[in-house]
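Let us practice reading a record.
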Amino acid sequence: MTAAVFAPTGAEAAAPAAQVGLGQAINQALAAELAADEKVLVMGEDVGALGGVFRVTAGLRERFGTDRVRDTPLGEAGIVGTAIGLALRGYRPVCEIQFDGFVFPAFSQITTQLAKLRARSGGRLSLPVTIRIPYGGRIGAVEHHSESPEALFAHTAGLRLVSPSNSQDAYDITRAAIACPDPVIVFEPKGLYWSKGQVAEPPDGAAPDLSVLNRARVARRAGETGGGQVTLAAYGPSVPQALAAAERLAEDGVESEVLDLRAISPIDFDAIAESVARTGRLVVVHEAPVFFGAGAEIAARVTERCFYLLEAPVLRVGGYHLPYPPALIEHDYLPGPERIVAAVRRALDF
């Protein structure tokens, strides 16, 4: 991995913020990178004429042409394999996988080729491939449309994994992913595509800030002093759930700090440790099953680094070790504020 690329750009004087949906923010980011670099290509099933199943790529083909916004055959392994070849020829392809559960035919291309070519070439080859995957539940979809497979890719060295939780991060992360010389998988929380937030676009010509690919942010501070009784660490679709839980706890006098991890690999363990030093307790929240999930890695690392700071064991709240359930009962599977609050109370009672 290239550490130097994470230096902030120092871009200043961003444009005034506007309220846009998370999916629309990604569309704006794609347009910005397509306009800035003719080597950027967008490819995937129905990304052109249809504008994607979630309309995230709407209007891009009309603006940039069919050579740069290209519909592909129905074959995810072929999409990623073609992107690898294009990257080796100097392009910056952005692949869309229509739904999380559809990525598995491309798993081999991603983990055995895309992730490894840079190390295998001794750093001589860069693979600036961005793979966008709408993931997670909360839209009432059918089988293979609501999964959270991030842990399967996080275990493979050589890949960067990120997940935005709001419109501004969606814009910044998408631009940074495309500009990054490493392969980046952007897990887009489809349940938040229509949630609106402010997006401030940088001045024309400003380079993306790549530090958003490995830097967490404090989404909610506990009280004026920044202290509190517990840290809630979450990413992507679980961040709003953690924030809602924090509000409920505050009604009972329990102050929580919510940390939006943004990056799943690499994880910003320094930010987690700093927050735990302020609160003494940690609850990790994600939609994926807790069994062998990102929360397990975080719990182990924090226990190693912060053992004497912890007032209670690190707890995890997530999906069950079961195939994703039918849409009518997905609310029983997904971690919501009630389960997060219950975990916090367990930590406080320890």
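A brief commentary: The chain is about 35% helix and 20% strand.
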